[in-house]
From TrEMBL:
InterPro entries: HisE (IPR008179), PRib-ATP_PPHydrolase-like (IPR021130). It comes from Beggiatoa alba B18LD. Pathway: Amino-acid biosynthesis; L-histidine biosynthesis; L-histidine from 5-phospho-alpha-D-ribose 1-diphosphate: step 2/9. Keywords: Amino-acid biosynthesis, ATP-binding, Cytoplasm, Histidine biosynthesis, Hydrolase, Nucleotide-binding. It is found in: Cytoplasm. One of its GO terms (biological process) is L-histidine biosynthetic process. It catalyses: 1-(5-phospho-beta-D-ribosyl)-ATP + H2O = 1-(5-phospho-beta-D-ribosyl)-5'-AMP + diphosphate + H(+). Belongs to the PRA-PH family. This is Phosphoribosyl-ATP pyrophosphatase.
Length: 107
C-alpha cells in the first residue's frame, strides 16, 4: 500500500463521517459505532486465518485487503491518520538496522 493510496483512502473515510449511512458502507459502520467496527476487524482477522490455513492465496489477499481496510476505518474513526502507523513501522525498521546493512552490502 503506497502512501498516496493511503492518503486518498483516508480522505474518503474522513468524508464518510458526513455521509448518509443508507448510501455508504463506511458511514453505516460509523453510525453503528466503534464496537460494530471492531467486530468487523475480528471477523476479517478470522477469515484471514482460515484463508491462510487453507493455503488459498487469492482468498488470503482478498481477506487481508478486507482486514487492512477495516483497521483503516478504526484509525479514522479514532481521528488518527494511517501515516502514524507507517511512521511507527518506519521507526522500527530504522531501529532494526536492516536498511543500513542492506546499503552497506551494496558497496
Ligand atoms: N475498500 C473498501 C472495502 N473493502 C471491503 N469493503 C466492504 O467490507 C465488507 C466486508 O464484509 P464481509 O466480508 O463480511 O462481507 P459482507 O457479507 O458483504 O459484509 P456484512 O454484510 O457482514 O457487513 C463488504 O461489505 C465490503 O463491501 C469495503 N467497502 C469500501 N471500501 C472503500 O471505501 C470507500 C468508501 O466506501 P463507501 O462508504 O461504501 O462509499 C470505497 O470507495 C472503497 O474504496
Amino acid at each position: 500500500m503506497n502512501n498516496d493510496l493511503l492518503d486518498r483512502l483516508a480522505a474518503v473515510l474522513n468524508e464518510r463521517k458526513q455521509a448518509d449511512p443508507q448510501s455508504s458502507y463506511v458511514a453505516s459502520l460509523y453510525a453503528k459505532g466503534l464496537d460494530a467496527i471492531l467486530k468487523k476487524v475480528g471477523e476479517e482477522a478470522t477469515e484471514t486465518v482460515i484463508a491462510a490455513k487453507n493455503a488459498d492465496s487469492a482468498q488470503l489477499i482478498y481477506e487481508i485487503a478486507d482486514l487492512w481496510f477495516h483497521t483503516l476505518v478504526v484509525l479514522v474513526h479514532q481521528d488518527l491518520h494511517p501515516q502514524a502507523v507507517l511512521d511507527e513501522l518506519d521507526r522500527r525498521f530504522g531501529l532494526s538496522g536492516i536498511e543500513e546493512k542492506a546499503s552497506r552490502n551494496q558497496h
